[in-house]
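Hi everyone, sorry if this is the wrong subforum. Our group has a chain we'd like a structural model of before ordering constructs, and none of us has done structure prediction before. Sequence below.
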Amino acid sequence: MMKCSDSLMLKVAALACLFVLSLTAFAKGIDRKQLVNDGWQFCLNDSNFAQAKTVTLPHDWSVLQRFDRNAPAEAAGAYLPTGRGWYRKILTLNKDYQNKRLRLYFEGVYMNSKVYVNGQLAGGWPYGYSSFWVDVTPYVKMGKNEIVVSVDNSQQKNCRWYSGSGIYRNVWLFTTPMTYIDDWSVSVNTPDTHTVEINADVVDADGKRTPIQRTIHVDQPHLWSPSDPFLYEAELTQGEDRINVRYGIRTIEYDAQNGLRLNGQSIKLNGACVHHDNGILGAASYDAAEYHKVKLMKEAGFNALRTSHNPPSEAFLRACDELGLLVIDESFDGWREEKNPHDYHTLIDQWWQRDLDAMVLRDRNHPCIFCWSTGNEVIERKKIEIIKTAQQMANHIRQQDPQKRPITSALAAWDRDWDIYDPLAAVHDIVGYNYMIFKAESDHERVPERVMMQTESYPRDAWANYERTMKHNYILGDFVWTGLDYLGESGIGRWYYEGDPAGESWERPLYPWHAAYCGDVDLTGLRKPVSYYRSLLWNAHEPLYMAVREPDGWFGKVKTSMWSTWPTFASWNWPGWEGKEIEVEVYSDKPTVRLYLNEQLIGEQPTARKMATFKLPYTPGTLRAEAGNEKVTLSTAGAPVALRLTSDRTILNADGQDLAFVTIEVIDAQGRMIPVADNQLTFKVEGAGTFMAAGNADIKDEDPYFDSTHHAWKGRALCVIRSSQKSGNIRLSVSSPTLPTSVLKLSSR
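Answer:
Right subforum, don't worry. Here is the predicted structure as tokens:
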């Protein structure tokens, strides 16, 4: 490998947290990287574009249909239809594009995609979670070019959760000189906090690659960490081509004696598993939605996320870089034995290396990624040949990742045969335990050098998992299932009532349940009480919090499931339960908590496991909990008088891609949300914005998310608005029978 010469110029700069990288112009005003999400025509189950409708990417056609108990994807796919789709775009090229290398970059198409350019097959990819490139240079001409993408998600079932269907992530056009820097060849390694190694391949017009290397010394590096996610940017120039790459300077170390160290400092992982969907938006991976998702996780107190069970979007990883969350980047849910008839076992022999490359080469410069995962609860884990598969995958990743991050996979036992997985566990640098961390102590005695983390856990086990993790250095942390409620795996985490269908989602259809309720954060972005409790365990900043357990029999006799917690809400509205016993939970790190009802002291209780509980007859009014100098109240809300609209932002980018997440609350005359309100809501968006979706956190609600009429659930709903490409005002009006229409004004610039 030759050293950097004058032909490669390198410029390094520190930068504040930016969400979107600016485009880099190299000649004649053509952006090297151009977003081509607009102006696509789409046909579902028919390739006749005369009947097409115009769509903007990212696009998930499944979530734009109605829930159907007979959908082929069944409970796993949220009871939403799948099928086949065709996309068409006319790409007009002028003379400035002559003698240039032109590549289309697809961040994700679910699934079995084929890309045609002017009628010729130019590329495609079967695995729906991999990003991929299509060199269209040999197929295009100056003038108009027809790009057609076929997508086949008709073979069901192929996934255990909601995949979505279509071109659900961004599409880009890359324009470079014929000799260019290969984007995925660029790697940044920080072997120590003062050394940065940058490698890249220059590809000439004949496809010949020339590797180039540069090492720079940083005297006083600003290190990246979850508490201080500082980023640098390097600009690489080769001839007329120029690219930017962001990275963070940080070091990762781990062993059974000292645990995980980031930049030499010990850190424990308070982690969450997340799926790739964006709730009521389905799988549509708008950058703003990905950022919103990560922000919710950061605000919920997590410092780590696991991308179960597939590589995430680029925007997701950029947000983790910027906001400061460590990431386990995971590749596959299964290997050679099927979990579903059309899952990855049909692709693995021909595609595993290319799919691992697509993950590692794309993602390896993200400082947030501390670990790679090659699989999750693979079915064939008792077979000896699995050792070879695990070794091959781990070795392949190590060859592609100069940072040599640790390799894991998530192991589980659905029987008593846990110890026989020792040879498989030994292949991994860190062993992932799914629901099995109670085996940690005995495993440590048997294999004292093993480093462990619980890669999935039940929400109800928050205290036990926290206590065990903090007790042992060889346990790096815990990843709860899950951080957010998500579509598919319908009924996971539900509570239900006597008379409802019993059991778990894999045992029988549970329609109309179409989502999972096991998240710390619900589909509207609201943190559940368990979120505040978990964060109080792991973080010093979480304030006093109070919630009330739904009385058993208030609505029905409560039944819980494996991933559920008891239905608990920040509510003092329990009509019909007056005079009957009700239980209040107060989460605090103080030794005792006092509880008052209508200014009368109910009692003082010690906290056990950072929680105090009180039982008292329900009486409407105001509850107040006090601990130390902190206090929190819950008051009985009155009758609905208005709707309150609150947006996560007031100014949107006029790029046709930005989103506003608007919370709708039904409130009383004192401005208190009414936690029993279920008002019907109608949404209308006018001006420089578009209505995208509306919904609530009720995973049994059959109203489609694309419908502009929806009802509140427990006093709350969510609406998502997309900006247009024109500057101007956006007006959201929400109406409800018997209530005045409420209006929210936003602007797009």
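For your construct planning: Residues 1-8, 15-28 have pLDDT under 50 and may be disordered. DSSP finds eight helices and 52 strands in the chain.
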